Amino acid sequence: MSLTVVGSIALDTVETPLGKAEEILGGAAVFFSLAAAHFCRVNLIGVVGKDFPEEHAQLLSSRNINMDGLERADGKTFRWSARYHDDINERDTLDTQLNVLESFQPKLTQTSTEAPYLFLANIHPSLQLDVLNQSKPVFVGLDSMNLWIDIAPDMLKQVLKKIDCLVINDAEARQLTGENNLPVAARHIQNLGPATVIIKKGEHGCLLFGKDGQIFAAPAIPLDRVIDPTGAGDTFAGGFMGYIADKGNSDWATLKQAVVHGTVLASFACESFGPDSLATIGKDDINKRIQLFSELTHFTS
Amino acid sequence: MSLTVVGSIALDTVETPLGKAEEILGGAAVFFSLAAAHFCRVNLIGVVGKDFPEEHAQLLSSRNINMDGLERADGKTFRWSARYHDDINERDTLDTQLNVLESFQPKLTQTSTEAPYLFLANIHPSLQLDVLNQSKPVFVGLDSMNLWIDIAPDMLKQVLKKIDCLVINDAEARQLTGENNLPVAARHIQNLGPATVIIKKGEHGCLLFGKDGQIFAAPAIPLDRVIDPTGAGDTFAGGFMGYIADKGNSDWATLKQAVVHGTVLASFACESFGPDSLATIGKDDINKRIQLFSELTHFTS
Does the pTM of the predicted model rise above 0.95? Predict the structure, then answer.
């Protein structure tokens, strides 16, 4: 089944201990789409400026991504710049220029409205609510960030009532609930709406919480060289949602498989600047790394 | 087979968000022994002062722990005091009084010398070396800390050449190797001596690195209530070493099982102040939680 994602498209400038890349393709919806498109057809809803290189749009179109929902607005594309520390789990954001993203009003195409699976990447909760009102999906995933928890918590809670799965990082889960213990924070979030909660922990992997109290812990795949972790969380969400949309099912066994697929896709995202590696890997590469994940965690009691 | 541990015995004063406990039984060798004794006979080598309550020694003796190596020195028992933050993964050490530990010279008994398994808990590397020279174990595990990496790195490296398994936390692994990437840091440590390396990551579990490049990732067991995490790492090491000593084997499958058993024991340690819970649980409690761990990570590719 098909999947719609609404979120940012960016030109990123990133410096890590292993190099620097300037004005490369980025943004949550881009990483998400390139990951999800390995499993299902993806409708991307987002905005770019007149300066957005045509080759980027072509790359996305060539990868099972429907770009009819790409809006080209007057002005410049959203830009984001960051420098990672020697410990690559830490970074400083150097610059954020919202540009055309500042007045973004997502407009769903007919095709994207009809997709049964929807992911609302990190944008203002009022826009997420607006998208929800334009569509009737069977399963909605959501991301958010510290900024919206800070300045629009009530709006965010309205959105949470209407979704099926929140994908959020550990610091955000703690901030949203005021609860330091992650299993307790997850249950708190479930009480706000979403039956399924995923708490991402960066290099430590993630925890999946199911509606009947189940927990699944997935470590990240250990990598010898992390070239650029930008977008790893969005890639995770793309692999997760793409897998679910492809199966047309969100039972516990499928959710666990989806988390493993998201974990594997995220590991590839860390191995290149920008989303390049997501566009070059194939089914075989993914399956080999699924096998690696299996060996990494295999234990018989 | 039997197991000897050399390390600290303490009276701890601990404050966590869930309460405060004063002058309770603590110390690395105590947590270690109470965990390991669920699997095998343990010889505890350590020192206390004349003020050490007899009931603590009796508790240890009652739990499959040989206390013949307990030295009662003139002076006061080692004392340690800490306050945990609301985020219980963070703590401030408030006070450390070495007392009799300051002049501790471990003397192995005949029985403890003959034990084929040996664990050197966190004490000065020169003492660890001294213990190694008193014994001929078949498998040696080691812990250390930031202080010794700082002030006695050469001595620590001499010890590392002679051991089989280093159990260390992530910050210490990074400090010891100057390498932020954990798999690379682990290989770096393996090149210094130990064929097996375990990197502990607190609430995120641990990574086990085998001599043939294998990696096993074990998440921590999610707990709704962490009452006091003091000694969880030492408890992990005790469960790990105790399991191996019981099996008399350290092949890859056994090492993985040992890590899971260490993980399970550590989860119990967090559920009471001090090591109380380790003394009250039985085989059934452990096996139930092994099953829980299995469900937490179970995935079929």
Answer: yes
